[in-house]
Amino acid sequence: MNGQKIEIQLYVADIRDFSIQGGLDKITSKRQEQIKLYCQLEDKARCLTAGLMERVILKVESDEEIGFGENGKPYLKNSQTHYNIAHSGNYVVMAVSDVEVGVDIERIDEEALDAARICFTPLECNLVKENHTDKFFEIWTAKESIMKATGRGFTLLPESFTVLPLDRTAHEIEGRKWYFQWDRIEDHIFCTAVENYPQFVTISRFSIHSKTHSGN
Length: 216
Known about the structure:
Blueprint: E1 6-14, H1 20-23, H2 29-37, H3 41-58, E2 66-68, E3 74-76, E4 82-88, E5 91-97, E6 101-107, H4 116-119, H5 122-131, H6 133-149, E7 171-173, E8 176-185, E9 188-195, E10 198-206, E11 211-215
Parallel strand pairs: 1-10
Antiparallel strand pairs: 1-5, 2-3, 4-5, 6-9, 7-8, 8-9, 10-11
Helix pairs in contact: 2-3, 5-6
């Protein structure tokens, strides 16, 4: 990968911009079935939005175009493009890159802080005690993004590795070098983990009609 210009494209969508009735015919049949299983409208909207992002951004038209790793990480069967999707609260975020990538988004909620005791390393716990909510969610989203990027999910225990320091230097985890980027929207924080250092990061606001660039 030496000399390769790594790019990450991040797309952020507000589920309040989408109508269940107006988008079902544009997503895969598997997504349609998932939506039927959800009881809460917010869950249906998050699933729909993720499906529309796959359709519009990745050009996915059928279930056969997406495969799943051993622990459920999705991938495009006939493409070298890597992607990952996360959702929380009112937002769905998609990360797209030409190397392995993972993304996590969380709505900031102080009730989640108790998870640090069982999911963080001692040094990470100390940092949360000193800086409370913000550092907790920076650590948690970084850990989740790594667990997703590696394809390990929760088979890679979050307390078994550290994401400190919370910066954009290389973090050696699972024998590979990973880099983090954190971003915020309203009361949400999201983190992207990518293998190899990204020279270019673009963030776009996604809608079914257009993708409006909003920063880098």
